[in-house]
Amino acid sequence: MIGCVDMGGGTRGIYGAGVLDGCLDLGIHFDGMYAVSAGSANAVSYMAGQRGRNYRFYTSYFSRAQTMGPRTALHTRNLLDLDYIYCAISAQDGEDPLDYDTFQANPARLEVVTTDARSGKSVYFHKDDISLDHYECLCASSTLPLVNRPYIYKGRAYFDGGVSDPIPLHRALEDGCDRVVVILTRSKNLPGVSRYQRSQARLLRRRYPGTADAILNRCRLYDEALALARSLEESGKVLILSPEELPLMRTLTRNRESLDLLYQAGLDAAQRIPAFLNRT
Predict the structure, then answer these.
(1) How far apart, in Å, are the Cα atoms of 198 and each of 30, 119, 218, 238?
(2) Which residues is 115 bridged to in the sheet?
(3) Contact at 8 Å (CB) between 218 and 166?
(4) Is the pLDDT of residue 62 over 90?
(5) Are 22 and 266 spatial neighbours (Cβ–Cβ below 8 Å)?
(6) pLDDT digits (tens, 9 = 90+) for 232-242
(7) pLDDT tier at 193 (50, 70, 90 boundaries)?
(8) What radius of gyration, in Å, describes the C-alpha atoms of the chain?
(9) Is 98 exposed, middle or buried (0-12, 13-18, 19+ CB in 10 A)?
(10) Residue 74: per-residue pLDDT
C-alpha cells in the first residue's frame, strides 16, 4: 500500500496542492490519504482528479473579503468563514464544485483529522462522512483555535486536526502502508516550535481545557512524528517533501507571489515521487 500524509498548514497548504497536482500530472495514485486541516481539502480535490482546483482556492477565493477578515468576523463571529470556502463554493451549484462522483468512486482510503474541542483528542473522519454538498468535516479539520470558534459537526465541537495529530504518519503505517509520502509545509529540519502556544492555551483553558492541553502538547507530538518520518526516510519507507529553499510564511498568508512560489515548489517536489515508489 502507498500512503500520502498532508499536514496542511493554512494557506501554506498550497505547497501540498502543488505536490498533489504534480501527482495527477504523473499519474500517481495513492491507496490512502491521511490529511490535516487544509491538507484535507487538497486530498479531496486530488481524489476527484480536479487539477488546479485547490490552486484557485488558495490564490483567488481566500483573498476575498467574505472569506477572511473584519467583514467575515462581523457576520459569522469567525475570522475565517470555512462554510463559505469549503461548502458554498464547493457545492454542486457553487462557483467551483467538487466532482463528487469521481471523488466517491476513487478507491483510495481517506482520513480527515480533527480535534474534539472538549477532550482535545483526535477524531478521524472518512470518505463515508462526506456526502454530496456536505463537506463539513473539512471545515472541522481546518478550524484554527482563536481564529474561529469551534466547528459544530454532528452535534460535537471540533478544532483543527493539527492541534492533536499534526503529522498522522502513524495512521498510514497502522493501515499497512509500506511506502508513505509525507508532505510538510515547513522545513523537515525545523522543530515544531510555537511562540504562542502558552498564550493560546491560557485563552482557551476555561472553556476548552482539553484543547488547551493539546496545544501545549502539540510541539512534542510534531517532533516525535517528524523524527519517525526522518528515521523511516533513511530506510526508504518514507519520502518527506518540504519547501526547504523557501522562507517560512505566515499560516494565513495571502501574498500571491509567496503562494505561487510555494505551489511551484510543490509541483517540482512531486517529480521525486516516481523514483521513491520504484525503489526496490
Answers:
(1) 37, 18, 11, 32
(2) 122, 159
(3) yes
(4) no
(5) yes
(6) 999 999 999 99
(7) low
(8) 17
(9) buried
(10) 65
- For the stretch 138-174, pLDDT in tens is 999 999 998 899 999 999 999 999 999 999 999 999 9
Cell numbers standing for residue 202? 491560557
CA distance 168 to 125: 13
